[in-house]
Specification:
Number of strands: 0
Distance between the termini: 9 Å
Helix content: over 70%
Structural class: mainly alpha
Number of helices: 6
Largest sheet: none
Strand content: under 5%
Radius of gyration: 16 Å
């Protein structure tokens, strides 16, 4: 699977969770619990996605495009903000004012980021990078996602080196915590290839 197909599948999966969260704002105990569980799945999926992009995708953009540094820097700023919002979602109780505010801001930021990425970055990258390069990048990203952190870690630098070293330690810690706390059961499945 090439890199853009991999990313598109992830985007669609996360957008699907967002749509469910936008619709499910009930106040009953069952609705709040379901909302909390879906938010946990969202945090896990988005955290893994961003870590993989920081490790592989944005360095490839920097290398392939003349304005790659500018595009990657802008995207990483967006992702750093998203990680802080994801941390607020993770730390607050579903249904609380803080949770709803962070979720609302994250939804807006996510849609803007996806629009930026798919509209401004993907078209020139598709032209600049060869098919083999995109296939290889997609395989690296799919493999890395399995070992990516499941929590946002907003204080970890967004550089590829920090993500590949510190991110690995964070991922191992996250996965151990997920197993012990039962959070692992909220890990969303990988989106099916399209």
């Amino acid at each position: 699977m090439d890199a853009l197909t991999f990313l598109r599948n992830d985007h669609e999966s996360v957008l699907g969770m967002i749509e469910l969260l936008e619709r499910g704002r009930g106040n009953g105990a069952a609705e709040t619990r379901a909302r909390s569980e879906l938010a946990t799945s969202l945090v896990m999926a988005a955290s893994q996605h961003e870590a993989v992009e920081e490790q592989f995708f944005w360095p490839a953009v920097r290398q392939a495009l003349p304005d790659g540094d500018e595009l990657a820097d802008q995207a990483l700023e967006q992702e750093d903000r998203a990680k802080r919002l994801l941390q607020q979602i993770e730390d607050s109780e579903a249904g609380s004012g803080e949770f709803e505010q962070a979720l609302t801001e994250f939804i807006v930021a996510l849609r803007e980021h996806i629009e930026f990425e798919q509209g401004r970055v993907w078209p020139p990258l598709r032209e600049a990078a060869g098919r083999d390069t995109m296939e290889e990048l997609g395989q690296k990203m799919a493999t890395a996602k399995k070992m990516a952190p499941t929590r946002p870690h907003p204080d970890t630098p967004s550089t590829p080196g920090a993500q590949k070293t510190g991110g690995l330690v964070a991922a191992l810690t996250d996965k151990a915590r997920d197993l012990v706390t039962g959070r692992r059961s909220h890990q969303p499945p990988d989106p099916p290839p399209t």
